[in-house]
């Protein structure tokens, strides 16, 4: 396709779409004006109904909790698929040596780097746990906390190097967290069903507003999401990181038999 | 619209442009991480701290890391065979 033809097509598309875009853009509400009746209703009703102050968590884990369960399963499936794909081509045997591009110098880490990374990894881990635990009261929650916990594993790698990192971070533990979290979510949804109520309906005492224990069943769901996201992202990092290890000789040959 | 939000919007557009016009994949990853950080700050300025936390953790830590690992894996593989 020549440049001229592309420009002609672009011109035609602009001619057709520009009026529509302009029309929609001019009809948008003013910047920063909250107009969504749903959002206003949530802000007005939920603190009293659910005893929580973080509306995002309340919507995610209670009002549309079943949607979040679906997303949880999507994350589980996506990470499982990535793991199967990567492990299938690589095999299970764990050479615990980092791969190395010939010609690039390997510079040993300075003690200061190792120390800084250890401190930063610990603090990041604690921050993640705190963000996950306070999901009902302050911004954050299971997903954010879980991702922060998983990213503390990256700092651990940065400080300790591949071999020590592989010894510290165990795949089966992460897989257990991932699956266990998802299972806990399903159980939290199913127990009210068994009691003859709608799925995910609150069956625990709601607790006090602005307290660490507030929100009832939402706390369990939040914890489930935190565990599952920690496991999922940790496993994803681990599986990708395994791709950079030194190639061992008994690995499974790929489709062309190399 | 406050000056802070306007400035962050311009920064977001600029850092996004930087991701597109960077040609070296490794530098592009860092540009992407920078763009994620700017977006996180923008969400924070727009009073969406939950989204900001996710964006900063996923957009500046995990995604760039996965890209870097993929690039490293390609580099080791290509030389190894």
Features:
heterodimer; A: 258 residues; mainly alpha; 9 helices; 67% helix; 0% strand; globular; B: 81 residues; membrane (chain B); transmembrane (chain B); transmembrane helix (chain B); cell membrane (chain B)
Number of strands of chain B: 0
User: Which whole number gives the mean pLDDT of chain A?
Assistant: 88
Percent helix of chain B, as a range, is over 70%
Q: Domains counted in the coordinates of chain B: how many?
A: 1
The overall pLDDT of chain B, averaged over residues, is: 90
Strands of chain A, total number: 0
The percent range for helix content of chain A is 55-70%
What's the helix-strand series of chain B? HHH
* Helix-strand topology string of chain A: HHHHHHHHH
Structural class of chain B: mainly alpha
Which shape of chain B, going by the Cα principal axes?
A: elongated
Number of distinct helices of chain A: 9
Largest sheet of chain A: none
Low-confidence stretches of chain A: none
| Head-to-tail CA distance between termini of chain A | 38 Å
Bin the strand percentage of chain A. under 5%
Instruction: Count up the helices of chain B.
Output: 3
Instruction: Describe the sheet with the most strands of chain B.
Output: none
Radius of gyration of chain A: 24 Å
Going by helix content, strand content and strand pairing, the class of chain A is mainly alpha
Give the overall shape of chain A. Answer: globular
């Amino acid at each position: 396709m020549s440049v001229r033809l592309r420009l002609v097509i672009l011109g035609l598309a602009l001619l057709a779409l520009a009026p529509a875009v302009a029309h929609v853009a001019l009809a948008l509400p003013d910047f920063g004006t909250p107009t969504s009746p749903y959002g206003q209703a949530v802000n007005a009703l939920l603190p009293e109904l659910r005893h929580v102050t973080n509306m995002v968590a309340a919507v995610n884990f209670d009002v549309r909790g079943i949607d979040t369960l679906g997303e949880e399963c999507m994350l589980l499936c996506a990470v499982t698929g990535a793991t199967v794909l990567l492990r299938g081509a690589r095999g299970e045997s764990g050479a615990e040596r980092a791969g190395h591009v010939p010609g690039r110098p390997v510079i040993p880490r300075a003690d200061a780097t190792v120390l800084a990374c250890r401190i930063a990894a610990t603090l990041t881990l604690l921050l993640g746990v705190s963000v996950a635990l306070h999901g009902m009261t302050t911004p954050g929650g299971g997903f954010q906390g879980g991702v922060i916990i998983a990213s503390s594993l990256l700092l651990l790698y940065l400080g300790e190097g591949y071999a020590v990192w592989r010894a510290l971070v165990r795949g089966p533990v992460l897989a257990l967290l991932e699956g266990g979290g998802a299972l806990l979510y399903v159980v939290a949804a199913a127990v009210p069903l068994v009691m003859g109520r709608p799925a995910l309906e609150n069956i625990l005492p709601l607790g006090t507003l602005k307290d660490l224990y507030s929100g009832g069943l939402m706390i369990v769901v939040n914890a489930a999401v935190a565990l599952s996201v920690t496991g999922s992202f940790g496993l994803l990092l681990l599986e990708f990181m395994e791709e950079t290890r030194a190639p061992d000789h008994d690995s499974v040959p790929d489709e062309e038999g190399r | 619209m406050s000056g802070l939000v306007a400035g962050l919007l311009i920064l977001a557009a600029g850092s996004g442009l930087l991701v597109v016009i960077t040609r070296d994949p490794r530098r592009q990853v860092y540009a992407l991480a920078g763009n994620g950080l700017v977006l996180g700050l923008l969400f924070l300025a727009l009073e969406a701290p939950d989204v900001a936390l996710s964006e900063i953790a996923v957009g500046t830590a995990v995604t760039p890391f996965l890209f870097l690992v993929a690039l490293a894996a390609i580099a080791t593989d290509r030389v190894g065979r």
